[in-house]
Structures are given as C-alpha cells and as structure tokens.
Design brief:
rod-shaped; about 85% helix; about 70 residues; single chain; mainly alpha
C-alpha cells in the first residue's frame, strides 16, 4: 500500500506543478486547468480508496477483540 500511495503522491505533486504552470501561462487555458483539476480529484479518490482497502486488509486478519482494542 505504501508504494501505491507514494506513486500517487508523486503524480499529485506533478499535477500541482502543471496547474501552477497553467495558471501563470501567458494565455490561460480554462479547459486545460479544468482537466488538470479533474485529474487531481481522480488521484485523491484513488489514494483514499487504496488507504481504505489497506485498512480493511489489516483489520480482516484481527480477531474481534483485537479490532475492538484499536
């Protein structure tokens, strides 16, 4: 899970850089900025899903008493 999240984090950083570049370009391209924003939202959805899946994977191997102790 950590490797997956790290890869998504790097894509997020790259996307933020692209958005910053698009916002400071000589000509503002609203469609491009919207596309980059939408991609950032997809990355966020992927990251939260992966984290949720990892948490479920972890607790599935615990007994009910162990889960309660968390």
């Amino acid at each position: 899970a950590a490797d997956d999240i790290f890869a998504l984090r790097q894509k997020h950083r790259d996307g933020r850089k692209q958005i910053a570049e698009a916002l400071t370009a000589e000509t503002i391209d609203r469609a491009k900025i919207e596309s980059l924003r939408a991609e950032q939202m997809k990355l966020a959805e992927s990251a939260t899903k992966r984290l949720s899946d990892a948490a479920v994977d972890a607790v599935e191997v615990l007994t009910p008493a162990q889960r309660e102790a968390l």
